[in-house]
Amino acid sequence: MSKNRSQQPNRKRTVNVREERKAINVRELLTFSFKDFDQTQPKKSPETLRVWSDKGLLPKLFDRLMHLANLTRSEAVNEGQIQQYGQFPDKDKTEFSIPSHVPLGANWSVIKKLGGKIRVAGYLIDNTFYIVFLDSEHKFFLSKLKHT
Q1: What pTM does this model have?
Q2: DSSP code at position 136
Q3: Phi, psi of 31 (to 5 degrees)
Q4: I need a surface site. Which of 1, 15, 106, 119 has the fewest CB within 10 A?
């Protein structure tokens, strides 16, 4: 037998009472890529992972990358940890040259605060820093000595 539902209280379905899940604001954190990594420059004394390992610089590099991976691009730039140059430095201001596999018009930048004159050069696209050069002697963007 079927139930007689006419005797039951009126159960109207309520409209729009479900609490919607609130969207969590996700920060777009920095990521790193070695896809365009070039260990053949500068020509006079190429900076390789082996050279940086021998100089004891790899732990500093990885510590810096782990720190930066917790920041957004704008936070890293505002804190002075990444300096954006935009265009590649002029030939008289660098000992490096643009590798052919790097996209034209790349936003050239450096990772700073590795200790003294040590830099990592590359370019930024969105929130990815593409590491291209290791630069322990500050030869990517030559500048005049200050306070000497």
Answers
A1: 0.80
A2: T
A3: -125, 165
A4: 1
User: 3-state DSSP call for residue 123?
Assistant: strand
Backbone angles phi, psi at 118, to 5 degrees: -70, 135
What single-letter DSSP state applies at residue 19? P
Give the model's pLDDT for residue 123: 98
Average pLDDT over residues 116-122: 96
Amino acid letter for position 84:
Q
Q: Residue 54 corresponds to which tokens in the numbers above? A: 């021998």
Label residue 126 left, alpha or beta by phi (over 0 means left) and psi (-120 to 50 means alpha): left
Distance between CA atoms of residues 37 and 57, nearest Å: 17
CA dihedral 24, 29, 34, 36 (to 10 degrees): 100
The end-to-end CA distance of the chain, in Å, is 101
Q: How far apart (Å, rounded) are the C-alpha atoms in residues 65 and 83?
A: 15
Distance CA 148, CA 142 (A): 16
Between CA 133 and CA 36 the distance in angstroms is: 9
Task: Break the chain into its structural domains and give their ranges.
Answer: 27-135
Confidence of residue 57 (pLDDT cuts 50, 70, 90): very high
Tell me which architecture the domain covering 27-135 has in CATH: 2-Layer Sandwich (3.30)
**Of 83, 64, 63, nearest to 73 (Cα)?**
83
